Amino acid sequence: MELVIRKMGINGEGIAYYKRKPVFIEGALKDETVKAHIVEDKGRYYIGKLERIIERSPVRQRPLCPYYKECGGCQIMHMTYPGQIGYKIDMVKEAFEKYAQVEITVDEVVENDTLYAYRNSLKLPVSYIDGKLKSGLYRADSNHLLAIDKCLIHDTRLEKVRKNVLNVLNKYHYKDIYGLYLRIFSDDIQGVIVADEVIGSDCIDDLKKIENLTTLYHSKRKKKAREFFGKENRLLFGPKMTTFTMMDLKLAIRPFSFMQLNTGQAAKLYLKVIGLIDVHDKVIYEGYCGIGVISLMLAKRAKKVIGTEIVASAIADAKRNAQKNHIHNAEFNVGDSGEELRYRLRKERIDVIVVDPPRTGLDDLMRESIIRSKVRDVIYVSCNPATLAKDYACLKQYYDIRRTIVLDMFSNSAHIETIVLLSRR
C-alpha cells in the first residue's frame, strides 16, 4: 500500500495512518511517500515494513555504517544533521504537548561538534562464534549477536583496544567471556572483562602490553545473568581509578560509576546548567548526583551544595573528587534523592534543586518533595523527553517553564538530552 509519513516516533520510526490508526515504519522519514505493508496489528497501532520510497525527504542521506540496518543502535543515521536536530526539537515539543498538555518553546539548541567517534565508552556483549570470541550487539528482539568489526560512533582508540583485547583472549582460547567494557578519558583507557572463568597470568601479561589500556578489571558473572557486570570485581592491573580533567575540575572515576558518554558535549551541558541562574550565596540540592560533577562545579559558585545518590560507589567517588579539588562546601550522601530532600528541607533552607534522573524520570516521592519544598528554582536535566514531560505534568500546577535547552549528546541516535529551568509561581 502507498502511505504518507505524517510524523516521526521516539525511536526514529516514520508514522503514517491507516484506518485511523498509526502505522510505525522503521526507516521512513516525515513527509515521505512510501510503499509499505503491514506486518503486525498491535491493536492500537500497526507495525509496517518499508518496501520502497516513492517520494524522498530532503533530509534523507545514505548511512555511513555498513551495519546500520541490522544493528539499530543509530536509529537516525539516515537523516542529515540538520534533519536530526529538527527531529529532536520536534520530539521534545511533542512530548510536552502529549503528556503535559502544554506548548513549549525550545530556546536554544547545543549541537554536537563531532558526529562520529564521539562516544567515550563501549559496553558490548561477547560470544564464542565459529571458534572465536566476537563482540557486537544483539539483533533487535533476539539473543543472536551481530558481530561488529567497527562502530563509527565509538572513539577510534576504544575500537583499536577492543580488537586487541579480543585478539589476546582468543590467543589463549577463552570461551566463557560474556562482555567487554572500555572507557576513555584523555588517553587512558579503563576496561572490564566480564567472564565466568579466571583470566590467567600469561594472558594478563599480554593484555598489559596493549597501548592505552591502563586499567583492567575482571567482573565475574554467569552467562545468563540479567546485569552486565557481576557482583565480584577484581582488579587485574593498573590503578583502581582513572583521573582526568573536565574544565577546571580534576576528577577520578572507577569503571563502574556513571559518567556522560560524550565528554565534549557533557562539558557543554554542565556549562549550561551552571549558567542558568545566579547561585551566589545559595544552598543547592542535587538529586541523582552520580560522581558529583555538577555539584562540584556549582559549589565553586554557591554557598553550599548537597548531593544525593543511591549508588554508594558513586558517592565515594564524589567525596574523593571534592577532596581532590579542595572543595569544602559540597556534602554528599548515599540515599534516596526524594527522601533526602524531604529530610534536608526540615533542617535548612534550600534555594535551588537540580535533578538529573535516569531515563525513568523522577519517582513519586521526588516529585512530591519538590512540590512541598516550595523551592523557587528547579533545574531538570533529562535524557528522556517523555518522562520529563510526564514529570512536568505533575509539577505544572506549581512551576512554569522559564527556559528549555535541547542538547545533542548522541548524534545519529534518537536519544535526546534536555535541560529545563522551572520557576515557582
Topology, pairings included?
Layout: E1 2-4, E2 7-8, E3 14-18, E4 21-25, E5 33-41, E6 46-55, H1 68-71, H2 81-99, E7 108-110, E8 121-129, E9 132-138, E10 145-147, H3 156-171, E11 177-185, E12 188-195, H4 201-208, E13 213-220, E14 232-237, E15 242-246, E16 249-253, H5 263-275, E17 283-287, H6 293-299, E18 304-309, H7 312-324, E19 330-334, H8 337-347, E20 352-355, H9 364-373, E21 377-382, H10 385-395, E22 399-407, E23 417-424
Parallel strand pairs: 4-6, 7-22, 12-13, 17-18, 17-20, 18-19, 20-21
Antiparallel strand pairs: 1-5, 2-3, 3-4, 5-6, 8-9, 8-11, 9-10, 11-12, 13-14, 15-16, 21-23, 22-23
Helix pairs in contact: 2-10, 8-9
Overview features:
23 strands, alpha/beta, 33% strand, 425 residues, 10 helices
Averaged pLDDT:
95
Helix/strand/pairing class, anyone?
Answer: alpha/beta
Poorly predicted ranges:
none
Question: Hey, roughly how much beta strand do the residues contain?
Answer: 25-35%
Instruction: Strand order, main sheet: write it out.
Output: 7-22-23-21-20-17-18-19
Number of strands: 23
Helix fraction, binned, reads 25-40%
Give the number of helices: 10
Q: Biggest β-sheet: count, sense, barrel? A: 8 strands, mixed
Shape descriptor: globular
Structure, described:
The protein has ten helices and 23 strands. It has helices at residues 68-71, 81-99, 156-171, 201-208, 263-275, 293-299, 312-324, 337-347, 364-373, 385-395; strands at residues 2-4, 7-8, 14-18, 21-25, 33-41, 46-55, 108-110, 121-129, 132-138, 145-147, 177-185, 188-195, 213-220, 232-237, 242-246, 249-253, 283-287, 304-309, 330-334, 352-355, 377-382, 399-407, 417-424. The chain has an eight-stranded mixed sheet with strand order 7-22-23-21-20-17-18-19, sandwiched between helices. A seven-stranded mixed sheet has the order 10-9-8-11-12-13-14, with helices on one face. The protein has a six-stranded mixed sheet with strand order 1-5-6-4-3-2, with no helix packed on it. Helix 8 (337-347) packs parallel to helix 9. The chain is globular and about 60 Å long.
